[in-house]
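Two entries, shown back to back:
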Amino acid sequence: MMSDKSASRLLSSLEKNFDPTQIEDHLYQEWETKNYFRASTDATKPNYCIDLPPPNVTGSLHMGHALNHCIQDVLVRYKRMDGYNAAWIPGTDHAGIATQSVVERNLAKEGKTRLGMGREKFEQEVWKWKEEYGGTIVRQIRKMGSSCDWSRERFTLDEGFTKAVRHAFVTLYQEKLIYRSSYLVNWDTALQTAVSDLEVEYKDVEGQLYHFVYPIEGSDKGIEVATTRPETMLGDVAVAVHPEDGRYQHLIGKKILHPFLNRRFPIIGDDQVKMEFGTGAVKITPAHDPNDYQMGIRHQLENISVIEKNGAMSSDAGQFAGMDRFEARKQVIAALKDKGLFVKQQKHSHAVGHSQRSGTIIEPLISEQWFVKTTELAKPAIEAVTSGQTKFVPSNWTKTYLQWMENINDWCISRQLWWGHRIPVWYCQDCSAMTCSIEDPSQCESCNKTNIVQDPDVLDTWFSSGLWPFGTLGWPEQTKDLKFFYPTTTLVTAFDIIFFWVARMMMMSMKFMNKAPFETVHIHALVRDEHGQKMSKSKGNVIDPLEMVQTYGADAFRFSLMAFSVQGRDVSISKDRIEGYRNFMNKLWNATRFALQALPSSFQYDPNYSYTNLSDQWIVGRLNKAIKNIRESLDSFRFNDYAHHIYQFAWHEVCDWYIELSKTHLYGNDEKAKESAAQCLIYVLDQTMKLLHPASPFITEKLWQTLPIEHETASIMLSTYPTSSSAVTDPSVEHHMAAVQEIINAVRTIRSENTIAPKVPLTCIILPIETQHETIELSGYSTYIASLANIDQMHWEDLTLDGPLAVSRGTYFHIKIPLANLTDHASEIERLKKKMSKIETDIAFLSGKLKNEKYVRQAPEHLVEKDREKLQKAQQDHEKLDLSLKLLEKQS
């Protein structure tokens, strides 16, 4: 007897009821302290590497994070158990705009501003905030059970990453792939910085379309234009019409007289003008509109900026100078009316760009910024996907990625902030030359004088995070990690940052590593509420993942996310569904407690034991099939299928069937059968915990540790993931057990339909049906049937019986149950007729639905298939009821 692994001692370590709060924090601390998450660079084992998409250091865990991190942890734990050096590299992003905004708001409460304290002191304040509050999301990631390799944790502003960013910038600059130029950019007037096209969110706004007339020089007539932003007319430098528009062809080349400014500008012809929109004449403001800017380049028009970076009108706005842009709008309209030039205004719904960072309406402004030439960088990144180096799962995202990359614009990488990677360029105050250097220079590289000043701007945070796949591994140093783990294996991310992040990592990686950064990009969907609605605070349907962990446990919450994570479909989740999977965890807890209670006192586990009971041989075969299905699901990123297979096996086959069947042996007198059942039960629980571990790590670790097995590893996460074998499944075992289950289910159904209590023993006549299979002989397994169906008299040949009978015809056997003195005969006939009538209504409805070609053609395939399954079941139920009813009517 093993003193340290005795069942009674192990049982005492399991509380009667499962309480996640009693095990989760303790286990996670143990895992981390013992370095179980740390990956090695042992070349004798294959590598597997995932980079955690770095959350903002200002952030807190939301449902998107929870799903994203759970998928990654499932993959990493699976691969770790499967013999890989599995590295999950975590880190956080400095989040330039978000972090600076947080700190500035805090300073404002103290009556301070960053401008008042100066750059150096402000940066010190941000670092101080980061050290005090920046670890919140990392602590929350740990609460989810994420097995990140914290020894390799990175921060996009740490010393090593700063070196990588500088190296990348200088290299691209020297190769003339980074340049500085004045260009029209998206300007955030609240944050006082440029933002990229991808950081502009277009919202439909119910606005106004204003019509007014521009006077034509030398004529008493004018030309009518329409605009949603009248204030920009102060920067107009042309009016454009389509060269084939008969209304205006004769006006092309004539001059406009600006009504408020001493300015003349031409009427031009351009093919891009839409004759059918508005009046067909378009005012052109190149300095404040992207389309106008391009037209200005084509026609060599002047750029006149009439809106400042703070949103106020500039000195070029004449009498409106100094006004806020929206106040100027009102005043311009009033002035047009005074001059008799205003025509009308009408409601007009249109998309308006808003900054994702501040929510402010974006103002297109011409500004001197730093840009990356992306066209050349995009080519290898496109080739990496089209050649199969990197594949997207689901594959439909490949087209999305390629379309954007093939039409990519140059990337504005400078931001007018103080927190971030400062641009490594210095301007000479004597000769105006620029010095770009990895190390801070002491003098101008052109004239060697020391009067140099660094560029005040910082880099877009996506520039540094674009280096994430190799920067986290030590690049530009040729570290052991870089050589061993690059390229990484899998990227797990959401579709909304394919352009922000995935594309940029692809470009940077192909440039600096000459290899795609990952083999697979798994794109997961959004998490929505149970009604399919997007979660938002205004709707009140937001689910806090940490609250779910606290209420239901991390294991149930994680399993819920996997169960509803269907490729290509959003994840709809609710508290009720999470609670349902907490019941699943309770079921496993209770199953393990039962096993420890039921084991013989002298039990010693034998991993090579040959099982003799039908139920043992059957469950081992079912386990083998489950392993195969589970592995195929994980390998193809079908996480809902993984959850489905483990749930079906653990709950329905192990708990609902096998444990109940094993009781006939564990509590019986046959010592050999008892030993076989005990050995098999522990083996099956051991394998079940391993299969479930990637999704639900805490409970599986706890229960696995309590099994009376001398484990070869200290933790379940270091054990070997189960493998299937083609030699395990015996068809005859499957057929015999299927027949046993069919009889038990048939008897239980008859009890339910005839309202006979489970405790009432029944007489059962069991008659074999000829099938394509070998003859099924079950008399040797009558103990299973008698125990699970509560049969006190079992007959294997037909008997002539008086009184009503309940009949069930299955695949293997024909069942008869005498109902005399058990049920009201007349009432039972009436009940069956009502039930049949309802089923006939269902059959008619489903048949009509499936005969509707439009529905079958247009409805989602899974819904149509579900209706087909419902119809098939209804028809089968009707056939059984009809047989029972005819027998009852014949006997009455």
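entry 2 starts here
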Amino acid sequence: MNSRSSSIFWTTLFTSMAILVYEVALTRVFSVILNYHFVFVVISFALLGLGLGSMAQGLWFRGLSRFRTLRLWLFIAGAFSFPVSGVLLVSLPLTAGVDFSHLGFYIYLGIATVPFMFAGINLAWIFQTWTDRAAVLYAGDLIGAAIGAVGAWFLLEHVSGLGAVMGSGMVAGIGVLIFTLGRHITPIRGVAVLLGTGVLFLGSFLTIVPEIPIGQDTDKDLYRMGKSGLSPEIVDSRWSAFGRTDLVKDSHSPHELALYVDGAAGTPMIHVDSTMNQKTKLQIISRWALQYFPYSFLPENEKESAYIIGPGGGKDVLIARSTGVKQITAVEVNPDMVELVRDHSDFNGGIYAEGDQLDIMIGEGRQVLRNSDSTYDIISLALPITKSRRSYESYALTEDYLFTVEAFQEYFDHMTQEGRVMILAHGETEVLRLVSTALRAFELNGIENTTAMKHFYAVSDGMMALLVIKKQPFTRQEVSNRHQLVEKFQLHKPVAYFPYLEQEQLHMMFPGEQHIETPMFQQAMMDIGTGRFKSEVAFMDYPMDVSPVTDNQPFFYDFKKGLPGTLTILFIIFAILLGLIIYQTKIRISAQFAAVRSGFPGKTFIASVTILGLAFMMGELSLFQKIVPYFRHPSIALTVTLVVLLTGTGIGSWVSQRFRESNLLNTLRIAAVAIGVLFFGFRMIFPLVDTLSMEAGRLVLIAWLFLTGLPLGTPFPTLLRFLHREDRQDIVPYAWGINGVASVTGSVFAVILAKWFGWNFVLVFAGIAYLSLAVVFTRLRNLIPRTLNSDADDAGPLVSKPEADVAEIPLNA
């Protein structure tokens, strides 16, 4: 490459890197401001900006050769749009706009989309101008995104969510500086952009830029505390790739601090002091009496060891230790939680000080357990939900994987013979889904529903509910002992169940001397326990969806029957937009080339880029979703899978530049078939991976992911080179636009299919889509009977056909 060619490559790389850093950072910012499922909405709309920007390049900016400096200013505006959008998002008083009915929500959408639109305009121009080198430039685009994935993780770990947004602007500023240097433009403008974005980035260290506000939503516990008259004060705060973790003090609870992730799902840090009087200790303990309940009946030989998933602020460790558990292993997914607890050991009595009796580990609880050979008397999960958005690849929460059929089978495998799982849940609906899922796990182990119900009991304290599942059936004596205490303290509502006992009616008195009778035990569970109904029938009439959850369909916390309204609305909007863009592209192709040469297969080409965008995103998301559970920590897992896949696609794209122009359509067919076969191969190797050690399994998955990436990076740049061969460079922005909008539509469609049929089906569907592309590419080849000289693909310098005057004339002339 000459200096001009190299500058365009590096400009593409840094622009793509900035987009990825901004996208990941945006998920973290919006996870604080919004509810987690609306993060999915905003990011989806924002990504539309890439496609819309590409369309804008084709419709309005294709003639910029008449305005020599305007192209440079588009790159400059794009660089500054990253930090400016970040500051606006956290500065404007819009945090109440968290759904489709609020104007603020749409303002969020607009602000978040602007940087993507500038990037779409600029990248579409680059690929339109140097279409003959599309594969090399696309490799730069993909490798830049891979580096951006690592950069985003690094910035989130060491700065903050908003700091990472500022950092994306600085990365884009480097791209602008390279652009000016490579095009012989006085570099003062590029230096000014880099300095300006650098100052904003440094502002995130010096707190010149504002702090991210907690969203005004009742699901945000920290916001709800302030609205209820309490006086929360943030005494310590940490940022990482996991999210923002705040340590909060409330004057009404002097013996307790609370830890929140992105303002939600608080976990207590309890004051432990040797000088504390007995009355105060009892008051503190009484608040968590429901968790003490199952420990109080265990003999010493059943309290040898406990495995605690999600100990948070240390309350679960304190309860286990105070009830006589001898050896405790606690696994916390959020490293900042552990760090904050240890930093405030003077308050909590050093609850996380490791020693002979306590082992604290960082990771995803289920994966750490899977990789262990130990068995435990107690496996404890107390409200393990963060209501936080830590990724952008799906609609599910990380915690969903803790409560699947496969998870329960792993818990059973890691229990001692008298071991049990203790799960603290939010209410009846969660308990019923847990029961439904655990029953399916028992069925797979050969235990039918009626017998399996002897392994359960459930009690409640009026707000929360406790479900205990024992590896061996409870005896009648064990049930009797526990039920006596339940009767004494009326621990029946919102849900209660004990095997062997008959249903009774509770007499309850309400204000106004209204007297009603209500069942003591949950009726559906009673019907299953007595053999009246199977679980599928017993829960059929329940108003919420409590069907079993699997790793293939990991949506435990989605209890609404049918699709969530947000997914339906998104899919309709994106499908309409995709249809409009396809229609507009068809009109433009017909209008622009009717006078040049008839016969260009516009419909077939449009079908190619549309299916390609849909299939690529569906395959990518299903691969992420299937691979992430095999890693110890979700943030690292997503970074690794992104880097491996994007690096593989980048290398594949780079190599495809060497393919001869006379063989482009054959290359497309071969690549499509290879991708389809590799996707099907993924579906087949997962059972093999499950038989390997965790380390070996990860290596196999990473290797197969990289192998899949090689052909995955070939089709789109090859289609762009095909346009160059056919002298159709003006179609490039439309191809980018359709592909971008189809990709976002594919992400929503992938989640919909996953909720209906599971991620395995999505992966297979994506494979079939790529195989169908081979048929489409064959039709494309047949519609263009063209014989080229075998030397037509001589590697030459980057040159511009549609905008040669822009490529050759300095923009500051």
